[in-house]
Amino acid sequence: MFPFAGSSYQGPSPRYAELRTCPQSVVKVPTAGGVDAWLVTEYADVRAAFADPRISRAAACGEGAPRVGGSMHTTPEMIISMDVVEHTRLRKLVAGSFTVRKIESMRPRVQEIVDELLDDMAAKGPSADLVQALALPLPLTVIGDLLGVPRQDLQSFERWARAFATVDDRAGGAASLEGLAKLSEYIVGLIADKRANPTDDMLSELIAARDNDDRLSEQELVTFGFTLIGAGFDTTANQLGNSVLALVEDHRDQWELLADKPELIPGAVEELLRHVNLFATDTTGFPRVAIEDLELGGAKIEAGDAVVIALASANRDANVFEDPDRLDVTRTDNPHISFGHGLHYCLGKTLGRIEMQVALEALIRRFPSLRLAVPASELPWHEGEINHTLTSLPVTWDA
User: Fold this and answer.
1) What distance separates the 2 farthest-apart alpha carbons in the chain?
2) What is the CA radius of gyration of the chain?
3) Confidence of residue 191 (pLDDT cuts 50, 70, 90)
4) Strand pairing partners for 128?
5) Of 107, 110, 155, 344, which is most buried by a Cβ count within 10 Å?
6) Contacts of 314 (CB under 8 A, 6+ apart)
7) What percentage of the chain has pLDDT greater than the value 90?
8) E strand or H helix at 244, and its extent?
9) pTM (2 decimals)?
């Protein structure tokens, strides 16, 4: 039954390794949603599925679409729910704000935020909750700066976004829908404020695109606003927290290697993105539906069939990665697919990389003796979310 048991931040369910040995690499599995779905597990097939316009996100959000379970609620107006024409239209509106050059220019500000957070952590030490001290406030502050969200509102926004990310189907999606409603209500108010008092930020640019050029509907504007904020902090916060946990607890030799050779950190971030499993279902969390008959990985997929793409499995494919279950911060040949591929390739990939690089470098440099303050078995995790999300990460260090 999909989602499979056994997934953790340490890696995907062992079931994926078994499936990658099957003669047919795309297999049909029963799901918690009550329908069968085609599961894509091998790297080459995952890339092909992401790039194939016949495997549709929009169709998965339509009326009567098959529900596979283990996925968060999305609406047709969200960019992550759109196919090529509408997705391209919305993506173009913000692409200029996410160029490598523009995002790279934010690195000094990211460094400033990290230094302030770690100064505060050191002053209160020698122990801290790394989630609250660094992993969460860093991306929240950065995306707040980028989009013009007042800092005093960020904690409320984080709480609503956390609810929106809930995937517990047993509750009928009530928590997710409530979070979505709160996010929408907040963005409506923020848009009204920025219409009256525009500032130099991305949300003000989107409002201008709506009001002056009519390139956005009002609902698209509201939805795009909270989608960008939610996507801009939640994945980075979880990836950073889980990566530090992996280094200090499971792979201490790699932490110490980075302390000795900080020049390895950019490559280490890529390896952490590949190795540390972010998604609780080992997939993107966003199922797709075939809109035409097609063949993939030896499977004959029919129009209307559900398709689930397993990112974490692709990142452990031995056909692409040597010794794929080993975390190796010196790995150089690393074409991981953690940011997706094709149409929905992550818009914020450069920003996420910068935040990870700056945070890890400063953390390792300033707290080389950092370690868990409690046994790993006692760490609290959020239940029923799209991501593996630590509630807290108690750490300590030598004063």
Assistant:
1) 63
2) 21
3) confident
4) 395
5) 110
6) 41, 42, 43, 46, 47, 320, 337
7) 56
8) helix 218-245
9) 0.92
Q: Give the least confident one: 126-130, 200-204, 372-376.
A: 200-204
- Token code pair at residue 107: 């690195």
| CA 92/CA 83 separation, integer angstroms | 14
Kindly list the domain boundaries of the chain, sorted by start residue. 14-396
Residue 271: CB partners within 8 Å, gap ≥ 6?
A: 327, 328, 329, 331, 334
Mean pLDDT of 231-244: 90
CATH domain 14-396 topology:
Cytochrome p450 (1.10.630)
Unique residue bearing structure tokens 């300033």: 366
268 with 254: CB under 8 angstroms? yes
| Nearest CA-CA partner of 66 in 244, 302, 295 | 302
137-147 vs 349-366: helix axis angle to the nearest 10?
140
Length of the chain: 399
Instruction: Give the list of residues 6+ apart from residue 140 with CB closer than 8 angstroms, or none.
Output: 154, 155, 157, 158, 233, 237
Strand, helix or coil for residue 147 = helix
Distance in angstroms (rounded) separating the CA atoms of residues 39 and 308: 5
pLDDT at residue 136 is higher than 80: yes
Instruction: Report the interhelical angle of 218-245 vs 84-95 (nearest 10°).
Output: 80
Question: Mean pLDDT across the chain, nearest whole number?
Answer: 89
Q: Please say whether the beta carbons of 346 and 311 come within 8 A.
A: no
Which residue in this structure is represented by tokens 């000094």? 108
Cis bond before residue 76 (omega within 30° of 0): no
The Cα 284–Cα 53 span in angstroms is: 17
Separation CA 95–CA 73 (nearest Å): 25
